[in-house]
Every structure is written in structure tokens, then in C-alpha cells.
Amino acid sequence: MRPHFSGPPPERGLFCNRTLNMRAIKAVGYDMDYTLIHYRVEAWERRAYEYIRDRLVEQGWPVADLTFDPMLAIRGLIIDTAKGNLLKANRFGFVKKALHGSRPMDFESQREAYNRTVIDLADRRWVFLNTLFSLSEACIYAQLVDRLDAGQLPGPMGYADLYEHVRKNLDATHMQGRLKAEIIADPERYVIDDPETPLALLDQKNAGKKLLLITNSEWAYTEPMMHFAFDRHLPEGMTWRQLFDVVIVSARKPEFFTTRSTLFEVVEANGEALLRPHSGPLDKSKPYFGGSALELERHLGLSGDEILYVGDHMFGDVHVTKNVLRWRTALILRELEDEVRAIAAFRATEVRIGERMLQKERLEAESCQVRLELQRRRHQYGPRTDAAEGDLVTRLAELRTELEALDAELGPMARAAGELSNPHWGLLTRAGNDKSHLARQVERYADIYTSRVSNFLFATPFVYLRSPRGSLPHDPSLPGGTPVFTTGDGAGSGPTE
């Protein structure tokens, strides 16, 4: 009897943009925060928010009553620091939704502000929310814009000045380490336990792959957090340190991938972590501080497509790694699980929307033909049918009535589609009917993406991941796509094969 292997739930799949043969991967590098270790986002971001707010209160700002709103921002949004807005853009950089501060912008205001604007993330004006760590920053900035507009903040100050002040206080919070000390003291409150992640890494290690930990977190935080998340789920007598061939902390990503920096060995003495300059081969039993990806490649004797790097930060983990080093890349999007489930639950409504849109397109096509016929008659040019003009006018009015009824039916369904997962922003990967700017970044820079590292368990270290066939607007489409040809009865249809 053949063994039965069940696949993962849909929301825990490995999604492939570019074909990836895991058998050809010799080393797998991992980020730690929100990659190997997942936090309870609302708990972490609420505390980060409160630390920023409390620092502002200490500076005399009247913001003690502000509270964290977990729905106000999602990963992949863009802060417009020039206008004090939170934006969601499509893959082309056109703004599709906007909040000024925490208040939705109406259509005309949004059109006036962004009709001629294409977002270019190379411009310092735009701040892309690359990671879940950005949510507290975006939330308090939006709320402070409201206070600035009301004249309640110290001034004079513009929206860009306000963002820099928030950023400075956020950086100070992380440098002080108070939040991380709180997490170390009570990890159960902040960390989501996932016993499958250590097993997935054991599979990779025993399949002959070198495992690398490359994190921006300092050693004093990395060691206790990895101990908490991993050691209790490993074979007896084994610790997380034995899983990894190289451990690099305080890596300063993305600079780790783009520049050369001195490498130090972390030496533990009397309960403190000291640094000692290092040269020569790396010792797998010792953690290191700083360094560079080029130095790591030389140590491993590997480069390019032999190394897979897995992280959650769109720019620092995936974009730079792909652009500079040509390493293979995997992006961790924990929100993907809720998104896939929401899409599945909405599927029946989505089918109805597609059917009604196909019907609407057919009615619109007929309406356009009737209007053209009337135009040609009135201006006396071109070929025309034998239909009476009065009949054409009557038919045009009937079509208008049918289209209005369809719009009334489609409106609530379209609004529901736009609010899936988040009432302000909808789905992470969609901006209206198009891909979101985040989805475009994922497509360009992540060879694969998934919701968590433990999803590698379902695929095994030997999987050959194949990307789906790319589609273009002229390919055969599902209901609701633009008709390419018409059938003999005038109804729209896609091209036949």
C-alpha cells in the first residue's frame, strides 16, 4: 500500500514567482524577527506604539489619550510625508485609496492630490511600510497628523517634520531596548509558538543544507528569544545553536548585503557579550557581529543561486538581496493566511460579481453600438442598420435602466470585496481590480513567498517549485474580463483555443 501524503491547507502553501529547485540550494539563510519567530502583532505593535507615545508625552506633547488602532495601517502602504497621508497604490504606482491622517479622503480630494502623481519609492517623500514593525509608526503618525491639523502640536511644523520626529522617537525606543527587555521577560505574551519551525529546519539541515541566521537583532536579544522559540522543540540535548552553521547578529541589513564591514566575534564573559575582531574561517560554535555577505559567501564557498535567503522585510531582506547578490529569495508574509482564507470565504460572491460584470460588459457593448448608430444617423455618415430611430432611442433607455439596476446590485458586493481583511484598505495584495504596490514588489523580488517558515515542512527540502504560466490581458479570461471577440449573436466572449 502506498503511503498517503496530504498537502498543506491552501493558506500555508509555498507560492512561486520564479522556478526554484530546492535540491540545488546549498545554504538557507534566515532572518529572525517575524521570520523564524512570529510575534502577536497587535500585542507587540501596541507596546511599541505606547513607548513612542509616552516619549512624546515626556516632551510635552498633548497625546496621552491616543490609543493604538490595529486596523489603521497594513503592510505595503505608503506614507506621503509631504501631505500627511497614508496611501495604497497599485502596481503602477497610482494611488487607489488614501487617508489624510486617520480620515478617508473623498474621491475629489484624492483625485486633486494624486491625479498626476506616480509613486517612486526612490523619492524620500514616500515611506513604504516594508514590515509588520512599521504598523505602530504609521498609526501614530496618522493620528498626529490629525492633531497637527487641529493646531494641537508644538510648532511651527510641517508633515515631513512631523514624520522625522516620529521616526527619531521610534529609533530611540528601539535603541533603549526597553521594549525588547519586556519581551524577553515575558515571551509567552508576545511570541506565537510554532513547534513545526524547528522541525522544518532539521529537515533542511539533515538534507545537507547549511543553515545561516542573519539578524539585525543584537545577541542579548537573539539568544534568549531563539532559546525560547526553538530549544523545547528540538531533540533532547540539542539547542538552537547546533542547528546553524553560521550565526550573525547586529547585521545592519540592508548594508550587510551591500557593503563591507568589520566582523567581530561575540564573546560571552561574566554575563556580558563582548566583541573581539575576527579574521579567518568562521567557527560554527561562535556567534558573530556585523560583517558582510561577501565575506560570508567566501566562507561558504557559495554564491548567487546556491543560497536562499528567507526574511520578512521587503527591502532589507528580499529586494537588496536579489538586486545585489542574486541570491534566491523567500518572503514571509504572515498576513497571507488571513488573506487566503478571506478570499476563499468570498469566492461565491466573487463568482457572482464576475457573472454580473460579464453581463454589464455585454450591455455596455450594445449600448455603445446603439449610441454609435444614432450618432451616424444624426450626422449622416457611415453604414447604418434598418432599425427605426425611435426603436433605437427606446432600446438605449432600456439598456440604461438595466445597467443602473446592475450597478445597484454590484455596488454592495464591490464594497464588500474592497473591505476584505481590513475595512480601510481591503486585501494586502489588491488595489481595486489590480495588484497592489506590495504585490508588485513581491512579484519582482521574491522568488517564492509564504506565510511562515514551517510551511517548508509540507514541501520537503527536495521540492521543485514551478512558477505558473504568466497571463496577459489578451489571454482567455474568467467571467468579468474584457471581451476580445464577439460571437455571432453579439455577446462578448474570450478567444477560443
UniProtKB/TrEMBL annotation:
InterPro entries hit by this protein: HAD-like_sf (IPR036412), HAD-SF_hydro_IG_5-nucl (IPR008380), HAD_sf (IPR023214), Pur_nucleotidase (IPR016695)
One Pfam family here: 5_nucleotid
Entry keyword annotation includes Zinc: no
Gene3D superfamilies noted in UniProt: HAD superfamily/HAD-like
Annotated region described as Disordered, given as residue ranges: 474-497
Protein keywords: Hydrolase, Magnesium, Metal-binding
Protein family (similarity comment): Belongs to the 5'(3')-deoxyribonucleotidase family.
Protein name: HAD-IG family 5'-nucleotidase
